[in-house]
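Two entries, shown back to back:
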Amino acid sequence: MKQPRITVIGSINMDLVTETPRVPTIGETVLGTGFSTLPGGKGANQAVACARLGAQVTMVGCVGDDGFGAELVQRLQEENVNVDYVEPITHASTGIASIVVENGDNSIIVVPGANHAVTPEKVQQAEEAIKQADVVLLQLEIPLPAVAEAVRIAGKYGVPVVLNPAPAIALPAELLAGVAVVTPNEYELAIMLNRNPEQTEDFHELLQMYSGVIMMTKGGDGAYYKQQDGSVVHQPGFQVNVVDTTGAGDTCNAALAVMIGRGADMAAAVRYAVAASALSVTKFGAQGGMPTEQEVEQFLGQIKE
């Protein structure tokens, strides 16, 4: 099977996870029950997932000149991700996500830090990596001008772009026009199209509003994808024992990009992506649960059509 070349341009964070029986009120101190530091950031997560699924991956992003930055770069290298375009930024802190877990519910504060230093100029420095890629994979945890520049350069060389529009913002039509496949969840789809997700139309109507190719993820229900001819197809989810859903979306996006890089059609690519996502929730941690190519192939081989 072809080893696709994927260039991921995006965020690199350290997740600081505190577990507590309850969140303290202002001025109060409570005793927590656990603490861990886990590599994260949508960009880095998707890069790791692509590498485990058999792709040749180049990561483009920024970290701080601190201990977290050095550790995250080392983690990416250990996952066989090329970090030639990951730049340590002097006098900047590495991006972090402070996550408080209270009885399974998350409260998250994200401090972008060095991720804000991913500028259009930084993206231009990685033009060769974009040119050589089979797919460019993007998210929105770096500044939008950098995302737009990546889309522009990829278009210059005819490289397809997969855009995961998270965190959700309304996106310019000219940016979306340069994207091969956009991959929102239902909430992100409404925001992306500048609609109120609380007062939105049925998601089928939203899918029809978007003129391009789209894969909308829907948790345990799998995914719905719209093709160029306007038809919408449902890929059902796969039943698994859920341990931790963190990173499922990143795994799904990575798997889709890998399959597009291999030349698969949307039906095969989405089915593979939903299967990889299902496997990812059977283990703890965003990157910890990401499956290998062999695991996904074995899983799909056991499913009766």
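entry 2 starts here
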Amino acid sequence: MPHIDYYFATLSPYTYLAGHRFEDVAAKHGATVTYKPLDVIALFGRTGGTPPKDRHINRIEYRAQELVRQAKKYDMPFNLKPAHWPTNAAPSSYAIIAAQNAGGGDMGKLVHTILRAVWAEEKDIAQDDVIKACLSEAGFDPTLADSGLLTGAETYAANLEEAIDKGVFGAPFYIVDNDQRFWGQDKIEDLDAHLSGKL
């Protein structure tokens, strides 16, 4: 049974655009998944990347076009300039970590619900009420938003260090247990093909 470490950021539009396709592929192949939210801006700084606001205008303009195209391609509601972006990603990330440790709900749905709140629903995922609503929608106890904050902070920081050690430089990033790495929501089909033995 394959295992996939899934590195992502709760503010990443590309993680949002992955939708449920990654979870569908994992389920198709009976793969287990460990969800590893991290600070993608810190990741950029440590691996030679540039935060979106500091990129050359050519890259900024292309990103704006490509995000809109990808959202249309997958028929996903999308706001290129959401009201609450950027915001503090730590509280939502801690909640995901707490939910994974507690179990009992749908992790893929939780991640997508949080990202949808940012990119389609104009909500601030740094706010407790938003995080609790996302936890509830995905079948988790909403009080998880108030618990395990120290563990969440420690794990969140450890995820960043682990990601760098394993070759991660962006989000979403998928690493199969044989060290095959896939970067970006547009590589989910390649991940599927790899798990099928075709790549």
